[in-house]
Amino acid sequence: MARPRKFDEQQVLRSATETFWTSGFAATSLDDLMRTTGLGKGSLYGAFGDKQALFQRVLDGYCADAAAGLRERLSGPESSSAARIRTLFDMMVAAASGSSGPPRACLLAKSTAELAATNADVAARAQQTFATIADLLQAEVESAQAAGDIPADRNARRTAHHLLAVLRGMEALTEAGMDESVLRDAADAALMAVGLRPEGQ
């Protein structure tokens, strides 16, 4: 009969996430994971498999949370899809003016840059996550079109892909410490390009 686990699996995953996020996959050793999670090698392997399997659990969880966070963000409280899209871009601009400095790189972006070319599972998870984000953006675009806020003749899927690409680019610029004015210009140009004028214009 298998022994019941005597640790909090979610806490272990949170600790492992922090470790991989800080150091990346290649630079994180088994000793690092044992130290930060408080588990021995046998417990780690028994519960999660090898380092690659644990990393995949971490990345899957991070991506699921990211998609859920965007879904929640796009569910309100603004009164229209147009306003929610504007707010999403405003939040990206605001991140550039954070008092604690630029945020660290998104774990998905960091993992994709490090591993996607050589790890099919990581590449597939990244593609799935970006497709989910594009789906969420497309639904908002279509809702804004129905309300007359985005021209009806715009291809909603292509517009969603445009917004996704700009958002990811803005994130990279923010992580590089670019001035807030650069992010504001990018956001305003993206909104106008899809037919949404920035508020006040």
UniProtKB/TrEMBL annotation:
DNA-binding region coordinates: 29-48
InterPro entries cross-referenced by the UniProt entry: DNA-bd_HTH_TetR-type_CS, Homeodomain-like_sf, HTH_TetR, Tet_transcr_reg_TetR-rel_C_sf, TetR_C
Domain HTH tetR-type: 6-66
Residues passing through the membrane, by range: none
Protein known as: TetR family transcriptional regulator
Listed Pfam families: TetR_C_13, TetR_N
Gene Ontology molecular function: any one: DNA binding
Key words of the record: DNA-binding, Transcription, Transcription regulation
Domain of life (superkingdom): Bacteria
Database matches in PANTHER family: HTH-TYPE TRANSCRIPTIONAL REGULATOR YJDC, TRANSCRIPTIONAL REGULATORY PROTEIN
The keyword DNA-binding is assigned to this record: yes
